[in-house]
Amino acid sequence: MPLSCSLQCFNKCCDKKYDITCSIYNCPKCGSLLDVVHNINELKKINNKFTWELSHSLRKGKPENHLHNSGVWRFHEFVMPSISHENVITTYEGNNPLLQYKNLKQILGLDSVHVKLSGNNYTGSFKDLGMTVLVSVVNDAIKKGKKIKAIGCASTGDTSASLSMYSAIAGIPSVIFLPKNKVSTAQLIQPIATGSKVFALDTDFDGCMKLVQKLAENGHIYLANSKNALRIEGQKTIAFELYENLNYKLPDWIVLPSGNLGNAYALFKGFKLLKELKFINKLPRLLLAQSSNANPLYRAFINKTNIKPTKAKNTLATAIQIGDPVSAPRAMLALRETNGVVEQATDQELSDISAKIDNKGLYTCPHTAVAFASLKKAIDKGIIKNDEIVVVISTANALKFTDFKLNYHMKNI
Ligand SMILES: *Cc1c(COP(=O)(O)O)cnc(C)c1O
Ligand SMILES: [Zn+2]
I want to staple 130 with a disulfide (CB 3.0 to 4.6 A). Which of 84, 235, 359, 361 is the partner? Predict the structure, then answer.
């Protein structure tokens, strides 16, 4: 049996399998999200530590194995095993540094914090990790005869930059819907420069998302938002890398800014796979950080209810300004299984902590600042303790958010 994976109902209403290249995004039977399911028994056969280290070092560097320069594709068996390697579209994403900071004690109250620089990717955010998988699968399908006219997404900025870049490399048309005046110039110019059709709509992200889902349902475009389960597969390699970065140890906490909630599920899914393959025997806890102006998950957590869609208010953390998160059920599962918690931060809190932390030799985007502000609250409440290993996921390169930095420091001067 070769390694393989397929799309299945996230709710497990039935065990029907759909081909990975199917243009469906919901279960045809019950309407729930879909999930990529791997053949665990086959993966178990290649799961020993030797294979893992092999994937890291030996395979890398050989010209015929150029894909192993990518932090995503060096794990291709665990990510997307059934793709022709010549059709993979990669910018050697991933392999992002995990830096340890021991100079944040005065600000956070922790002796040491690890920061995973997932913004150190080609288009400046972690979105590249998922997009390489999605665009590669589409490219593979097109090369094998499937008709796809264009790939499209709604975006708060970073998804569109990433989709546009990978589509341009593949030569596949892309279409992008952005909320007018809600993304930074640096974010907006990326998809324009790389040749996407860009529409700025007089609505918010949730409005763009509704439109793009309609277009995808009607078969006009292939959907690239994280509702599409393929992206999760690439993003889950952050978990694999963290495990390596910490020298095959598990962090106690992962702190990440969360909006549409796909990445929260991706991290959980990565660690869960490591557990199923018996590399690890428990899961790290998730601390999901939201803007207090766009906090449906925080409210659900505090009130112990399901997520109720809200209207997101404006926040400096534009990439997580989302009121109706598509991956809500996925994130609820991740929270339950990791004994996770949710915190929130105001614009004032994220701005202040961002400035303080930058002074210690970081350069944080507003979303990563939400993660740090939330981390501080969890430490102050005694939820996170000083002897625990804490990893903050830095989701974007702050060079994309010059206006945010400028406005803060101009005011302060
Ligand atoms: C997309 C994004 C997020 C949120 O990720 P979700 O998967 O939507 O929760 C956080 N920060 C940045 C910089 C992003 O681009
Ligand atoms: Zn179903």
Answer: 235
Select from 234, 238, 248, 282 the least CA-distant residue to 52.
Answer: 248
DSSP state, residue 57 = I
**Ligand 1 binding residues, C-beta < 6 A:** 125, 127, 158, 226, 257-264, 319-320, 365, 367, 395-396
**pLDDT per residue over 292-342, tens digit each?**
999 999 999 999 999 999 999 999 999 999 999 999 999 999 999 999 999
Give the DSSP per-residue string, 245-267: HTTS---SEEEEE-SSSHHHHHH
Q: How far is the CA of 124 from the centre of ligand 1 (A)?
A: 12
How far, in Å, CA of 342 to CA of 347, rounded?
A: 17
Q: Spell out a b/e string for 307-332, using b for 16 or more CB atoms within 10 Å of the CB, else e.
A: beeeebeebbbbbbbbbbbbbbbbbb
Q: pLDDT for 200-231, tens place per residue?
A: 999 999 999 999 999 999 989 999 998 999 99
CA distance 176 to 161: 9
Instruction: Dihedral sign for Cα 141, 145, 146, 151, please.
Output: positive
Report the relative pairing of strands 98-101 and 113-117 from DSSP bridges.
Answer: antiparallel
Task: Measure CA 364 to chain center.
Answer: 17
Query: CA-CA distance, 413 to 411, in Å (whole number)?
Result: 6
Q: Are 404 and 396 in contact (CB under 8 A)?
A: no
Residue nearest to atom 2 of ligand 1 (CA): 319
Which whole-number Å values give the CA distances from 281 to 47, 181, 249, 275, in the listed order? Answer: 14, 46, 11, 6
H-helix segments, 109-174: 127-143, 158-170
Quote the ligand 1 centre to 243 CA distance (angstroms).
21
0.90 exceeded by the pTM?
yes
- Ligand closest in space to the Cα of 259: 1
